[in-house]
Every structure is written in structure tokens, then in C-alpha cells.
Specification:
- The chain starts with 6 loop residues before the first strand and ends in an 11-residue tail after the last strand.
- The chain has 605 residues and is an alpha/beta fold.
- It contains 17 helices and 27 strands.
- The strands form 5 sheets. Strands 2, 5, 6, 9, 10, 12, 13 and 14 form an 8-stranded mixed sheet that branches. Strands 16-15-17-18-19-20 form a 6-stranded parallel sheet, with helices on both faces. It has a 6-stranded parallel sheet with strand order 23-22-21-24-25-26, with helices on one face.
- Strand 9 and strand 10 form a beta hairpin.
- Helix 1 runs parallel beside helix 4 and helix 3 crosses helix 16.
- The protein is globular.
- The protein folds into 3 domains: 167 residues; 175 residues, Rossmann fold (3-Layer(aba) Sandwich); 175 residues, Rossmann fold (3-Layer(aba) Sandwich).
Length: 605
């Protein structure tokens, strides 16, 4: 892309061609939505669109708001603070919002007197790093020439030497001393030294293997990698399998790396040397989950990082969509290094881009690679026959699959409250028509408490390896917040949602969209409601087809081919490439704007 030189914006404030005032501020997770009322002069020219910029005290536009004209005199402008467009948080600064048209700065955003009393309450603090650090957005009112203006202060508290919160706050006036302080300091030094050693190893390997692909006579070296398990996930293995089926392992070096940093935590120097060597050799790295090593480890420019996220689109928020909640990432994270992510459709790309803190245009609607096998008619027929043979009690019956997600903070304390299920009533409902398969989340350690007298209608298949296979024989799915609805929806069969703890779950895990609206089936809040829905057949089944329409651009079992053709071979569809070029050009122009002609720095706060 051609370099854009600085653009000196013309100060048109005194011409009073336009006034603009904030009439409302509201938050949607990490995105702020601001309602703006404009007051144009009688002869105002609307030929060029209005642009809204966040301009710092150094007269630079560090972000452009997305804007939507909702009526003749009102706009809705929005800004995601974790990614204003260039895959980083909005930088520290005191910002004014300037309304521009072309190269003209028309006015500075005022604020309606009606919301002045509540504007301070619109500020936000996003804690991260175990609540030790934070990122704040502070709204305030500035006064000049009898006009009230909106101030927006962004501050990254990573740079603050004092923690926002620590466990020591529970013990007032207590500072770590003696052995406790020595231990804490030593841990920091050891970790820092370990990272430095690993980084040095990478640099050495990088010099050695910079031309590895060319030297081995291959187009590129592809590394399929996980730091979450000692076995590669199905999205990664599906792409590898398809590469080999197409004979492309002759054209590419294919490497794999499997480690479980979450479960094991620490690996020895031999493991790190091995991983660094593979990373240094790689031109393209594929992961399907968070890879902690890339939180602090920045890849060389020659290497591209691709996220083939393991889950479809459920309800649970993750990554930056739950910023400020327990377990959220810091401002600098593995996600920031992705060139591309993937999704099932363009319509849901924004869910993933918010999670990763990248641009929506970088999320390619290839579909999930692991779905290719699931959608294969021959595979489906084979598994269906095998399941009927393995579990003959389902023959001639309708199958209800009870498959909720786990409760608890993590794997170590996961559980499911079986006491909420009225097993006797469910058993009576089944009669001779239904059987119920229970498939709990793999993290739930306790078996389903099925009574001996219920075993002719209830089956515990917790140990069955692949829940997707069970969808072929399922007539009704009962779940809650699980992303398994993504796969099951393609069976075009009804679902029920047992959301007994929706409010608690929303606060602890968070939703990235409205639960009741997005659920492709009837939502029940008590088990009695579940039973009544079963007894009356009230499943709100029409929601399933709408869900499929929104979430899938393709159901052709060729997601692996699209990943290979679009990403590995570089043949991204023209419309997607154009959208990527547009966002790059917009970002370059925004950064080039110079507002030093505009008088914005001497306002009394």
C-alpha cells in the first residue's frame, strides 16, 4: 500500500457550519455507543459524509468511530476500546471527539446538559492480569466559552507501578516481608530470565532456519501447534488430513507441536528448544485455542499466525469480549498476532473479532474444518449404523440428548447440579417412546446418578469420545450455554435450553449476545418448565432455521479446502481482499491526520 503523508486538517470551528452534541452514552461489553445530535447551518452541504475522530492532546487521531446515521439529525457512533481498528487498545490520552468532513474539522463534540449529571457514571474500569492491572475509560465534562464539551480519558494501568488490586488489600497495612517477599521476587526474576533465555534460543534458531522452506525445496513450512493439549485438536488434524489427501504434503513441510501448558505448566529446556526450532522454521503457524507462549513472545515478520478457533458460535463470552471479568486477557496477548481467524459465516465474524481483538475483516468465513467429516454423508451413515448396533435400546425410539456445559470456575472444580433434574418424572415421560442419553461436559467428573430401575430408558455416555456422532441419532437436544448447538443445528431438529442459572452465569462468564434472542429453541428456567415443554411439544423449533441461516455461509463439507486455498495458498476471495485493503487504507489515513490547527488543548476540566 502506498504510504500516506500527513494530512493537516483545516480548522473550521469559527465558521459554525455544524454543532454536535452527545445525548446518550451506553456500553456493550468493550464497545461504547454514543448518540449524537447534529445542528447544521441552513446551507450545510451533506455531499461528503461526516467522520468522527478521537483526537488526543497531541493533536493525533488515534481512532475513528464507526458511525451510522439513524435519522436526519442523529448519528450513532461506536468505538471498541480493545481494538479501534489496528488490533491494539486505544492509547493513553485525553481525547476530544472531533466531527470532520473531508479535510475539514467542523466542530468539537459538545454534551447535552440533560446527561451532564450522569456522564461520569458512564466511565469504565477493565481489570485484568488477576485484577493486578487495569485499563480505564473516564468520561468527564469540559467547559469553555459557556459550552460544555465531552472529555474522554484512556489510561492503561499496566504502566502504573502500584497494582490496582492485590490479595494484600484484604490485609490492611500488611506488606510482604522476609521469606514471602524473597519468594515473590525470585519467582518474577526466574520467569523473566526464563523468557529471556527462550527468546534468545528463538533468535538463534531464526538465523539458522530463516530460509528453511527454500532450502528444503518446499513452498512453505506449516506448523500445526497447540499449547492446550498433548493431542492436536480436530480443526488442526482435519486440515492436515486434507492437505495430505490433496497430495500437498509434497509441496509443504508439515510440522506439529503438542504441549499442555495449562495442565503441566512447565516444560524443560529440551522441550523449549524443540518448540523454538519448529517456530523458527515455520512460515505459517496454525493454532486452535489460546497459545500462552505468544502472550509474551512476538513472532518474526516472516511468520504468520492463524487462529482456527475450536468452537463454533455459542453464547459464552471469551477473550476480549469478557474484558474486565475474571480470566480475561491483558492488553497485549497472543490474539493480537493473528493475521486471520475463521468463522462459519460473515454474519458472525464480529463475535470472533471482538474475542480476538482484531478486525472483523480478518475473520474469514471458511467454516469449521472439523465439520467436513461431520457433514460427510458416508461418515454419518457409518456412525449411525454403529451407534444403533452398540446401543440397541435406542432402536425404534426417539432419542433425547441431555448435554449441558459444566459449572465451576475451571477444570479442577467442575461439576453439574444433578439434584435439579427430576429423574423420576423424566423417566415416566419417556414411556415406551423415548430414551434419554446423558452426555456431560468432559470436565464433569461425577457420573450421572441413574437408578437401576431407570437404566432401560436412560444411558450415561459421558465416556463416549465424540458428541457430534450422537447428534446423528438425536431427535431433541437439551442443553444450556454449550457451543454444541452450532453443530447440532445442522441436523435441523429441535432444541430446549435449561438455563436455571442464567443470571449467575451471565455475571460469572458473560454472554456475547442476548441469550433469549439468540437461543435456537425454547428457553426454560426450571426443570418443571423443561418437562412441560416436553409434554406439550413446545420447542419453538422455527428458531433453528434462522440460526442456521445466520451462522453458516457453507454446509458443503469443504471448509478444509477453503482454509487451504484461501489462507495457505493465498487465494483469498476478491471481495474479502478488497475489504482488508479498505480497512488498512482507513487506518493509515486516520493515523496521518494532523489536528494541530485545532484549538482543543486549553479546555478547563
Amino acid at each position: 500500500m502506498e504510504k500516506i503523508h500527513n494530512v493537516l486538517m483545516a480548522n473550521k470551528f469559527d465558521e459554525e457550519r455544524l454543532r454536535a452534541e452527545v445525548t446518550n452514552i451506553e456500553w456493550e461489553r468493550v464497545t461504547v455507543h454514543i448518540t449524537v445530535k447534529i445542528h447544521p447551518a441552513d446551507d450545510f452541504d451533506y455531499t461528503e459524509p461526516l467522520m468522527f475522530y478521537a483526537v488526543s492532546e497531541f493533536f493525533r487521531a488515534n481512532a475513528r468511530f464507526k458511525s451510522e446515521k439513524v435519522s436526519e439529525d442523529r448519528y450513532r457512533i461506536s468505538l471498541n476500546y480493545t481494538n479501534p481498528g489496528y488490533c491494539n487498545c486505544l492509547p493513553n490520552g485525553i481525547y476530544k471527539i472531533l466531527v470532520c468532513q473531508g479535510d475539514d474539522a467542523l466542530c468539537m463534540m459538545e454534551i447535552s446538559e440533560d446527561i451532564v449529571p450522569v456522564v461520569k457514571g458512564m466511565s469504565r474500569i477493565f481489570l485484568h492480569n488477576k485484577k493486578m492491572k487495569g485499563y480505564t475509560i473516564d468520561f468527564s465534562v469540559a467547559n469553555r466559552d459557556d459550552a460544555l464539551y465531552l472529555n474522554m480519558i484512556a489510561q492503561d494501568m499496566r504502566r502504573c507501578p502500584i497494582p490496582v488490586f492485590s490479595e494484600l488489600d484484604a490485609e490492611p497495612n500488611v506488606e510482604p516481608t522476609g521469606a514471602k517477599k524473597i519468594t515473590a521476587d525470585m519467582k518474577k526474576k526466574i520467569l523473566s530470565k526464563r523468557h529471556a533465555v527462550i527468546w534468545k534460543i528463538y533468535q538463534q534458531k531464526l538465523k539458522k532456519y530463516r530460509n528453511y522452506s527454500r532450502d528444503t525445496g518446499k513452498k512453505q513450512t506449516l506448523l500445526f501447534m497447540t499449547e492446550q493439549s498433548e493431542v492436536l485438536g480436530s480443526n488442526l488434524t482435519s486440515v492436515i488430513k486434507r492437505l495430505k489427501a490433496r497430495g500437498m504434503d509434497k509441496d509443504y513441510n508439515i510440522l506439529t507441536s503438542e504441549r499442555s501448558m495449562v495442565a503441566i505448566g512447565h516444560y524443560g529446556i529440551k522441550s523449549w528448544i524443540n518448540v523454538m526450532e519448529k517456530i523458527a522454521k515455520a512460515d505459517m503457524i496454525f493454532i486452535d485455542d489460546h497459545a500462552p507462549v505468544f502472550d509474551w513472545f512476538t513472532l518474526d515478520d516472516k511468520t504468520t499466525l492463524i487462529q482456527l478457533w475450536h468452537a463454533g458460535a455459542g453464547f459464552k463470552s471469551s477473550g476480549y469480549s469478557r474484558w474486565g471479568n475474571s480470566g480475561c486477557p491483558g492488553p497485549v496477548n497472543c490474539h493480537r498476532q493473528y493475521k486471520y481467524g475463521i468463522a462459519g459465516s460473515k454474519r458472525i465474524a464480529h463475535f470472533f473479532s471482538e474475542v480476538f481483538g482484531i478486525n472483523e475483516e480478518q475473520v474469514l468465513p471458511t467454516g469449521m474444518p472439523r465439520m467436513d467429516e461431520y457433514l460427510d454423508p458416508e461418515y454419518k451413515e457409518e456412525k449411525t449404523i454403529r451407534l444403533h448396533q452398540e446401543f440397541p435400546m435406542i432402536n425404534g425410539k426417539k432419542v433425547i440428548l441431555f448435554a449441558p456445559t459444566y459449572r465451576g470456575k475451571n477444570r479442577s472444580d467442575s461439576y453439574y447440579p444433578y439434584e435439579l433434574i427430576d429423574f423420576d418424572r423424566l423417566y415416566e415421560f419417556c414411556g415406551d417412546k423415548y430414551v434419554v442419553i446423558f452426555k456431560m461436559h468432559p470436565w464433569v467428573p461425577d457420573a450421572v446418578p441413574i437408578k437401576k430401575e431407570h437404566k432401560d430408558r436412560f444411558i450415561d455416555l459421558n465416556k463416549y469420545p465424540n458428541i457430534n456422532d450422537l447428534f446423528y441419532i438425536t431427535d431433541l437436544l437439551i442443553t444450556d450455554y454449550s457451543s454444541s448447538i452450532f453443530e447440532f443445528s445442522l441436523m435441523h431438529k429441535p432444541m430446549l435450553f435449561f438455563a436455571f442459572d442464567k443470571i449467575q452465569y451471565a455475571f460469572s462468564r458473560g454472554f456475547h449476545r442476548d441469550y433469549e434472542t439468540a437461543a435456537p429453541g425454547k428457553v426454560c428456567y426450571t426443570f418443571d418448565e423443561v418437562m412441560k415443554a416436553l409434554e406439550t411439544g413446545d420447542f419453538e423449533e422455527e428458531k433453528v432455521e434462522e440460526y442456521v441461516r445466520i451462522h453458516f455461509d457453507y454446509t458443503d463439507a469443504h471448509a478444509c479446502d477453503r482454509v487451504i486455498d484461501w489462507i495457505i495458498e493465498g487465494n483469498v476471495p476478491e471481495d474479502i481482499r478488497e475489504s482488508l485493503d479498505v480497512i488498512a487504507a482507513d487506518n493509515a489515513r486516520t493515523k496521518a491526520l494532523d489536528f494541530s490547527n485545532c484549538d482543543i488543548s486549553d479546555i478547563e476540566i
